[in-house]
Amino acid sequence: MEPPAVVWDPSLLGYDLGGDHPFNPVRLQLTIRLATELGVLDGVPLLVPEPASETELLRVHAPEYLEAVKQAPMAGWDVGHGLGTADNPVFSDMHDSSALVVGSTLLAARKIAEGEARRAVNIAGGLHHAMRDHAAGFCVYNDCAVSISWLLEHGFDRIAYIDTDVHHGDGVQAAFYDDPRVLTVSLHQHPFTLWPGTGYSAEVGTGEAEGCAVNLPLPPGTRDAGWLRAFHAVVPSVLEAFRPQLLVTQCGVDSHEEDPLADLSLTVDGHRAIYSTLRDLAERYTGGRWLAVGGGGYQLIRVVPRSWTHLLATVLDRDVPPETPIPPGWADLVRKAAPQAELPREMTDGADPAHRPWGDADDDPVDIAIRDTRRAVFPLHGLDPDDPRD
Questions:
Q1: Could you tell me which residue ranges the Histone deacetylase domain spans (predicted)?
Q2: Domain 5-381 annotated CATH 3.40.800.20
């Protein structure tokens, strides 16, 4: 079997929104260092990306928007297109750094399309909020949407995109809302309670793509067991009905209970269970073809490095046991940079992510969300929303 592809280069740290902005690239650096210290990346060649070309960016972005991004560092703060805001501040080399992130996910996609890898992972990707003509949610260019568009012209005509970030995967949904070749699935905190305020269960796609947008908004406080119950109650069934050739997953970890920007209550153990499930679904439905990218995650020391090290390990079939101690070398590195930081001791939060199966008689808030989504989407795929066997 072709070895998985891992895309990483320190130049990706250039996507830096500056100051005390929560989208801090140190989370990537600490992840790669932790994975290296644990031996997850031993013998794995790290693929070095190049910036995406304008032609590739124009697959999903407007020409005037690209020009605005290029001019923004010289024009100052009043440039429009969502640029120069608190969420999306202007920074030097913004176009080139953003294009490099897109290029990194495109490189991962290319390795799969060309048969050089069945799986590929790029933790620097996952900028799922960027829209056709404006920046949003810390995202300038949408690497997920650009790469899916490219894949549709390079051997694939049925792609499933699954977004596990705490925020709705709105930019990718918008890019393919009327395209029946792309199934977009997003599990996120309920839009009543969290930006961007979209991702209701009634958002199902339009025209021939009706049913190809699947949204599962979850109540604040949802823990591992509820999240995983919701996932299993919806996602495998729609995948089986859609019959994708490739799985693309955005694996944001801002769903963690310690994340400062949201209110779900997952653990590192829950994240590890999610990645294992995604790997199993790829083996079951797409011949193992799986492209995984990063996304959100703002507990920079205790959460992101551990969760995404588990992601890298899962893609590489080098699963790290939860009880594995944190390597002293990584801990020393963090203590020097952040002496007051509270460090994790193991690759686990000590949680059990086991969940019970969904049944249509359940009436807690998570199960109500499950029912709403199943009733909105399942009939469009010929499935019975009230039958737990579907």
A1: 21-314
A2: yes
